[in-house]
Amino acid sequence: MWRHSAKPVYFIVLDCRCLLGMVFWLSHMRVWTFITAFVLCALFGFLAWMGLTLPVACRMARVLLVGPHRPRLPLWKQRDYA
Fold first, then answer.
1. What pTM does this model have?
2. Arithmetic mean of pLDDT, 61-79
3. Which of 21, 32, 48, 58 is a plausible cystine mate for 40, CB 3.0–4.6 Å?
4. Do residues 45 and 35 both lie within one domain?
5. What is the four-CA torsion angle of 6, 9, 15, 20, rounded to 10 degrees?
6. How confident is the model at residue 81 (pLDDT cuts 50, 70, 90)?
7. Cβ–Cβ < 8 Å for 41, 21
8. SS3 category, 20
């Protein structure tokens, strides 16, 4: 019963987190909100194609921006992409 409770929710092939942009567009129908919602759907589709979820992609982006150095941890406890 609880086997698939940790898997992300998908609507057809898109992650349901991208539907937040569509809800925003449905509440404020303008061209720029449609473009924003479309870009979000394309971004989430690309992440799904790469096999990443949003939290994992955010962690990888943080490591790319900040770097893997974590000054409070000893070197043997530091992990890559964490």
1. 0.64
2. 76
3. 21
4. yes
5. -110
6. low
7. yes
8. helix
Decide if pLDDT at 82 tops 60: no
Average pLDDT over residues 43-49: 84
Domain of 68 in residue numbering reads as: 52-82
CB atoms within 10 A of CB 40: 19
- Assess contact for 44 and 15: CB atoms under 8 A: yes
One domain for residues 38 and 28:
yes
Three-state SS string across 23-68, please?
HHHHHCCCHHHHHHHHHHHHHHHHHHHHCCCHHHHHHHHHHHHHCC
